[in-house]
Design goal:
mainly alpha, three-stranded antiparallel sheet, Znf_RING/FYVE/PHD, about 55% helix, two-stranded antiparallel sheet
Length: about 1400
């Protein structure tokens, strides 16, 4: 076979360089999507099952299966050649196994952790380790993949493999179910091999590219012979020897179902068995099991008992391809690797203690550093002696029998020294740290032996290593001193400090701190495992305890004053490095170490200084990381540290914890907690990684990335909440420092709510969102559904030197002087923690999440503008085509602009992913509900809401505390619910929205409580968005409340009409257009509630009591109808004219002229769309109200204006000029002429029974034209579904108009010339009810001045403020006018004259 064919590479000198072992996927290609999937999955924690599958906790079974199907195909090693795909595939499979099992999923949701792990948080009685949060390397092996079903089997089952026929050793039976799957425990370079199953792997090709020929039946049998021997021989052996077939398996790594941990009494070997298998074992049988475990101690450290042996045999039996043959040969060579026996003093010890000889024999002489640097496991092959009796050998020496024994069974195991570090072996209880007494050993000898082994000290300078190959530290100086003093050459606790100082000064490569940390761990292991009696009566315990105390003291010296060992190192950095290590690491700090450290830190100021400095150092390191980096070890560390109260208190005393001199933009990197809250998907590195091509990204992929980021963020937010909770509970002073930090954050970020935010001067959105969410969760304990603790939120907080700076904020209803006076008064008392958190959370929402909502809206606008600019730039490319240099500059500038757009789009997608987090928004909404109830309680007359019913309108006297509240107390509620209603209305529970509707109605009904009209407009927007249909066939999420809650049915319609009137004067620079937007929303709410008869009944009753209010509403409605119709028709005329000009001009217009006209056309089209939308809604409202309250629209003050408006627009649509409205694509503008004409006709018909309306139409000398009315009827007959009855009414109405017109002209002729004193100076019509204006003393008709005051509350002749109540009747003038009419007309037109005078009383009955 050639070198090429065998997978080797031939070199020119004729040598073939051996090819490195491949996993089988290196030659495969992978897509960007596959790579992204692998990277994302491997960054997840091994038990973050929802995060692995990118699912929410609310995911259904179908969602879980769908996610698994997609991810398993993306990460399957056969399809994905990216490094780590196999590990990602395993994690995906494990996540699916847990979440698809209802019982395991339930346990996981309740407790977290691995449901199959008895010692995880999901176990029934498991106590979580304070170091359980430390993250493992994503590429490391995880025992969870040693479960009963492998990832390959799960994949085959899920994608059609089935579980068909019977189970045989050769491949899964006739049904094609999964066969055996053997692996090497996930070690690098070892592939997973599958035998049997429905879909065997594609046979590898040989060097010529042809598939290898399948082996014949005899060849196949020959290949399977090793498997047969492997399975059959042990079974026969057990039968002939009488060994019990039900003996439990012994594993040396925890792997379900082997979850019960035991420790052997002699060598302290930890092993795991199935708890059910030994449930009924007696003490004697358990001891036998311990002995058996010691004999079989050579098992694989990764938990597989026969895994390597199986894998080797199977691989050797696979001659299907050249590559497989080479792999088999290489594995076979492992049998030639024998450990080199040590020829030192250990040989003597081995004769006395055979068990120790075995360990020494398998442990090469190696320094701890060399051991840590060794990565590739070596393999031992030993012959295991077959038991000669049914019982297992009880002596460990039998495990070391000669390999030449007949009948031995081949065992392949990793060399323990190659993967178990000396530190871990000693802690696990190997002989080097065992304190058990030897025969005849005195307490002094025990003390000497224990201290030597634990600290690895020697008094013999010629001895450099112990029998296990560990470096020993010679203390010759101490030996000399002992000899000089004539003392025994032994170590004692009295001489230990001298030994530590001497050994530490010449520790070599290992630093004194690392050496002492390891010694401390060994001492703690002795105390925890071997010394059950922990009292002064136990001398051994006293010795070990004292040694541990001294060891900790010298650890502290090594940290605080390393000079004692002759070193110049930064103790803070050294400690920080060790803190960051996993506690299981040789140099990592264990729970016992931190516990001891915390007990001393209060009395040791230098230690506290170094410890706090180390935590600060770690904070500064974390400030340089992002969510896309390895940040979890930092957050897990701080989470573990704050579990110790003294450490938590020390952390809050750091000078970095609260520093008011730090600017807002640097709080997240220069305060101690800042970097932990900075971690967010909104960091630039993360948005670039997850949304690298935002313009072309698939919508589904973008949603998946957002969901993944949300899950990661939720996990991180839970960690920082846990940190804050422990800091708050550490002490009273610590709690105050935490509150000070939150206050510093919100008080420093007032500029985040500026109109144009300079991001370089404020904290980032991600940081502020994390702060807000943390505060939301801190509020949860007191936010119960019954509001039982709401009285603990004291309004007096505002006048007790509040942490939150509110003095310069705009107040709800107080000027700056009144605000200063209020906050200047101090109220005695102490603020509760609940009050502190409540007010901090309100401010955090204002400057945090609500500012982010506002930023997102502005960003979307900016991106649209930038895209338009980019399109415009592209049109200028032709200008530079002939100049290469300018073209390059143009391209460079254009690319930079595109990069900015891409960054903005990526940030937008990430921001949406964070803000559209249902869990976070639900928490936010829960707080907002609490805030709403607190505000309503503040303004309620009794101050006891919700225990007592709220009555509106509210009292005229506004509470001073409410007046001086910042506006953002209402603004955060408005913005928060607007965002939720716009983006995720499904999370709003209808049963918990009553308070929201009550808040809106209350302050719209008692609008004088809020000075800013735009705040009230925000309440209208909430009610409006509550009417949106967010699902097909459904209604708005608040619509049911509008129609069922008595408070709403009684007050909502009046509140809407009241603000409709107030919106006339919004006060902003865009108030003219703002009022139309507000009124449009009001119309939608009214349309939603109008079908409810309760609203109409209440409207009729109130109209009788408050006619003035209704007249003002009707007048403004008519103003709007008149304006929007006029603007719409004007725009259509411009559009029609411009379209005609452009069509007729052809090429006669130059480019500039054509562009000018096209821009004018676009402007007119935009106006037409806006105004036509308002026209349709306003006409719909006019139709509704004229039908329900016809008399309100026929009052003398408004009836003539209404008639004139209707006549004018009817003439425009059905008169001679109707052709001018013929624009192209009418539907584009929402313009449907027949439908609009039909609604105008409906208004005429609604008022057809009112004589004064008929007369007003007839008196319209400008637009009343009988032929226009007739033409309108013809149009409606042919273009609208008007019924014959309606068309008949229209014809009769035209006759009434004609008769009224003739009668009015006759009356005017009878009157003849009217004296000027009888004419109204405003309308120049004869007065019916003359009144005298109080300041100008001018006599006008009452209806004329009332009509004027509806739009302008001043005297029209001198502009002095005027109210209708101030005018005085001019009875003398009225008598003169009546006499004049009687003289000219007599009684012949009495009835008609009364009609002109108007109705004496409004009839507001329905219809």
């Amino acid at each position: 076979m050639s070198a090429t064919a065998s997978g080797s590479k031939a070199t020119p000198d004729g040598n073939a360089n051996s090819r490195d072992h491949k996993q089988g996927n290196q030659e495969r290609k992978y897509t960007i999507e596959q790579k992204t999937a692998v990277i994302r999955v491997r960054k997840c924690a091994s038990t973050a099952f929802y995060e692995i599958l990118s699912l929410e906790k609310t995911a259904s079974d179908a969602d879980i299966k769908k996610a698994y199907r997609k991810l398993s195909l993306l990460t399957h090693p056969d399809k994905n050649g990216y490094e780590g795909a196999d590990e990602a595939f395993k994690m995906v499979s494990r996540a699916f196994q847990i979440l698809s099992d209802p019982d395991k999923k339930s346990r996981f949701d309740q407790f977290g952790g691995d449901p199959d792990n008895r010692f995880s948080n999901s176990g029934a009685g498991a106590a979580p380790s304070p170091f359980s949060g430390f993250a493992r390397s994503p590429g490391g092996r995880n025992p969870m993949f040693d479960a009963e079903i492998s990832p390959e089997e799960l994949f085959n089952q899920f994608f059609g493999g089935g579980m068909g026929g019977g189970f045989t050793p050769f491949g899964g039976g006739m049904g094609g179910g999964p066969g055996f799957v053997f692996n090497m425990g996930g070690a690098p370079g070892i592939r997973v091999h599958q035998f049997g199953g429905m879909g065997p792997r594609r046979r590898p090709r040989n060097a010529t590219g042809q598939e290898d020929t399948p082996p014949s039946g005899l060849a196949a049998l020959t290949q399977l012979l090793p498997i047969l021997l492997l399975f059959v021989l042990p079974i026969l052996s057990s039968l002939f020897t009488g060994a019990a077939s039900s003996e439990p398996d012994v594993l040396f790594n925890r792997s379900p179902p082997n979850t019960l941990r035991r420790t052997t009494p002699r060598f302290q070997v930890n092993y795991y068995v199935d708890p059910q298998a030994v449930d009924d074992y007696s003490e004697r049988k358990l001891r036998q099991l311990d002995q058996r475990a010691e004999v079989n101690r050579e098992g694989d450290s990764e938990g597989g008992k026969l895994v390597i042996a199986y894998d080797l045999t199977i691989k050797m039996a696979e001659p299907s391809s050249d590559a497989d043959k080479i792999r088999s040969k290489r594995l076979a060579k492992l049998s030639q690797l024998q450990p080199t026996p040590r020829n030192n003093d250990a040989s003597q010890d081995s004769q006395e203690n055979p068990s120790e000889a075995v360990v020494a024999e398998n442990t090469p002489s190696r320094t701890p550093t060399e051991t840590q640097q060794t990565r590739r496991p070596s393999v031992n092959i030993t012959k295991m002696a077959r038991p000669s009796s049914p019982s297992r050998p009880s002596s460990a020496s039998q495990s070391a029998q000669s390999p030449s024994d007949d009948g031995g069974r081949l065992r392949i195991t990793p060399n323990p020294a190659s993967h178990i570090t000396p530190q871990k072996r000693d802690v696990a209880g190997t002989p080097s740290s065992m304190p058990s007494s030897r025969a005849g050993e005195t307490i002094e000898q025990f003390e000497d032996r224990t201290l030597r082994n634990v600290f690895r000290l020697t008094l013999d300078h010629s001895q450099t290593k112990d029998i296990h190959g560990q470096q020993l530290y010679s203390v010759g100086g101490l030996r000399q001193e002992l000899e000089d003093e004539g003392k025994p050459i032994m170590l004692t606790t009295e001489t230990l400090e001298q030994a530590i100082m001497e050994a530490g000064s010449k520790s070599g490569k290992t630093t004194p701190l690392d050496w002492l940390i390891g010694s401390f761990k060994r001492l703690s292991s002795i105390i925890n495992k071997f010394l059950k009696e922990r009292s002064p009566a136990n001398k051994k315990w006293v010795i070990v305890q004292e040694a541990r105390r001294l060891c900790m003291s010298w650890c502290i010296f090594a940290i605080t004053t390393p000079e004692v060992f002759g070193l110049e190192v930064d103790g803070q950095k050294e400690l920080a490095d060790r803190l960051l290590l996993d506690p299981e690491d040789d140099n990592g700090l264990s729970y016992d170490f931190l516990s001891e450290l915390s007990s001393r830190i209060g009395d040791d100021e230098p230690l506290k200084e170094v410890f706090v400095g180390a935590v600060e150092h770690l904070s500064r390191r974390l400030a340089r990381l992002s969510m896309d980096s390895e940040y979890r070890c930092y957050t897990s560390l701080l989470r573990n540290l704050v579990n110790f109260k003294p450490l938590a208190i020390a952390i809050t005393e750091s000078s970095m914890f609260v520093d008011a001199s730090i600017p807002a933009a640097e709080l997240e990197v220069k305060t101690l907690l800042g970097p932990y809250f900075q971690i967010s998907p909104l960091q630039a590195e993360v948005t670039k990684q997850y949304f690298s091509s935002p313009k072309t990204i698939d919508e589904g992929r973008a949603r998946e990335a957002q969901r993944s980021l949300r899950l990661t963020l939720q996990t991180h937010q839970n960690v920082i909440l846990d940190i804050i909770n422990h800091l708050i509970r550490a002490s009273g002073d610590a709690r105050q420092r935490v509150l000070d930090w939150f206050a510093l954050v919100v008080n420093s970020n007032h500029k985040r709510r500026a109109l144009r935010v300079d991001k370089s001067t404020v904290s980032s959105d991600g940081f502020m969102i994390n702060v807000t969410l943390c505060l939301d969760q801190l509020c949860e304990p007191f936010m119960d559904a019954t509001f039982a603790k709401i009285d603990r939120v004291q309004v007096e907080y505002l006048q007790r030197h509040p942490r939150v700076d509110m003095k310069d904020e705009t107040k709800l209803n107080a000027d700056q002087e009144a605000s200063d006076a209020f906050y200047g008064r101090t109220v005695e008392g102490k603020n509760h923690f609940i009050s502190e958190i409540f007010f901090l959370t309100v401010a955090a929402h204002h400057y945090g999440t609500e500012a982010a909502h506002s930023m997102l809206r502005e960003l979307e606008k900016d991106l649209k503008h930038m895209q338009k600019q980019l399109d415009q730039f592209e049109t200028d490319r032709h200008k530079y085509v002939n100049n290469p240099m300018q073209l390059r500059m143009f391209e460079s500038a254009l690319n930079k602009y595109k990069d900015q757009i891409d960054k903005g789009l990526s940030y937008k997608l990430a921001c949406q992913g964070v803000l559209l987090d249902e869990l976070a928004q639900t928490r936010s909404m829960q707080f907002m509900r609490y805030l709403i109830v607190w505000i309503l309680r503040l303004v309620s007359p009794t101050g006891k809401f919700p225990a007592e019913k709220l009555e509106v309108p509210l009292p005229k006297e506004i509470p001073g505390a409410f007046r001086c509240l910042p506006e953002y107390f209402l603004d955060v509620v408005s913005n928060n619910f607007q965002f939720i209603l716009s983006n995720m209305p499904q999370i709003i529970p209808s049963t918990q929205s009553d308070e929201l509707v009550m808040l809106c109605i209350t302050f719209l009904r008692s609008s004088e409580y809020i000075k800013n009209p735009y705040l009230k407009a925000g309440l209208i927007t909430i009610l409006f968005k509550g009417t949106w249909q967010w699902r097909a066939g459904g209604q708005g999420v608040l619509a049911d409340i509008y129609n069922s809650m008595p408070f709403a049915t009684e007050h909502l319609l009046h509140a809407l009409m009241q603000f409709f009137i107030e919106a006339e004067f919004m006060g902003g620079h865009g108030q003219f257009f703002d009022k139309f937007n507000v009124r449009f929303e009001i119309f939608q709410i009214i349309k939603c509630i109008w079908p409810n008869a309760v609203y109409r009944d209440n409207l009729y009753k109130e109209a009788k009591l408050n006619s003035e209010f209704f007249i003002r509403f009707v007048n403004l409605l008519l103003n709007d109808v008149t304006f929007v119709l006029d603007e719409s028709f004007t725009s259509f005329l411009q559009i029609a004219e411009l379209q005609k000009e452009l069509a007729n001009a052809g090429a006669s217009l130059d480019q500039a002229q054509r562009q000018e006209k096209e821009e004018a056309l676009a402007s007119a089209q935009g106006k037409a769309k806006s105004y036509m939308s308002l026209t349709n809604e306003t006409m719909a409202m006019l139709k509704l109200f004229t039908e329900a309250l016809s008399d309100a629209f026929t009052m003398p003050e408004v009836v003539q204006r209404l008639a004139d408006m209707l006549d004018y627009n009817l003439d425009a649509m059905a008169g001679p000029k109707q052709g001018k409205l013929a624009v192209q694509n009418k539907q584009e503008y929402g313009f449907d002429p027949p439908a609009l004409l039909s609604e105008i006709m409906d208004v005429y018909l609604n008022l057809s029974e009112k004589p004064n309306f008929i007369l007003a139409v007839a008196r319209d000398g400008r637009s009343y034209k009988p032929d226009v009315f007739a033409n309108a009827g013809v149009i409606l007959k042919h273009h609208t579904p008007k019924s014959p009855e309606e068309l008949k009414k229209w014809e009769n109405l035209q006759k009434k108009f004609a008769a009224a017109k003739a009668e009015d002209e006759a009356a005017e002729q009878d009157l003849g010339d009217i004296p000027d004193e009888f004419l109204d100076p405003l309308l120049y019509t004869i007065m019916n009810d003359p009144v005298i204006l109080p300041t100008s003393r001018i006599v006008v008709d009452r209806s004329a001045i009332r009509s004027h005051l509806l739009s302008d509350p001043t005297d029209p002749f001198n502009r002095v403020p005027l109210k209708i109540e101030d005018v005085k009747p001019d009875l003398e003038m009225k008598a003169k006018i009546e006499a004049f009419k009687q003289e000219r007309m007599g009684n012949k037109r009495k009835e008609f004259v009364e009609t002109i005078a108007g109705p004496e009383k409004m009839d507001l009955s329905p219809g």
